[in-house]
Amino acid sequence: MSLSLEQKIKLKRRNYLNSLGNLSSTEKLLASRKGGLRRSQLTTKQYTREKISKLLKEFYLKNGRIPFKKEFLHEKVARREFGSWNKAIIESGFKPNPVKFSKKYIANDGHICDSLAEKLIDDWLNTKQIIHERNARYNGTHFTCDFKVKDFYIEFFGLSNSSKKYDESMRRKLQFIKENKLKHISIYQKDIFPKFRLQVLLKDVI
Question: Where are the domains of the chain?
Fold first, then answer.
């Protein structure tokens, strides 16, 4: 049976404290804090620069792309070891992901997408042979949706909680949808990474 990192840390800490013998509980606590095993020390020891690079390369081989920070479990360790997330990516031999929507992506059906996540959604719809529109306008407004399938308006709120301006725009759009009783599906980053949930979210349009 393999142990998780958390279990290994607890086991090493327990073994260390047991080795202190007949010290009082207070003395053991001080020893564990001042001279003993710390979580950061164990993590650093176990996840070196070489280990982080290896994990990044393994992710790339499995998924055909580098991971986003949110889906890489050891992102904080990578930043500490390399100085920044992008440096960890570059020194591992890859090109960093573009910042937010600074780069356009072309879906397999030729649709222009504002992000990798939108491209993944578009490609999924195309794979399922679901006819869809990009940037379809809500009737009588300046609002556009990311995708429209039949009479469903599908929005990918990829920058939710990243800025007040974006969240306000999202709120106004959702309010309009509610007031006009439109069929609508919201997709968020967590629905794409780390687990792809479109099969569940878009079951009504398949």
Answer: 1-42, 47-97, 105-205
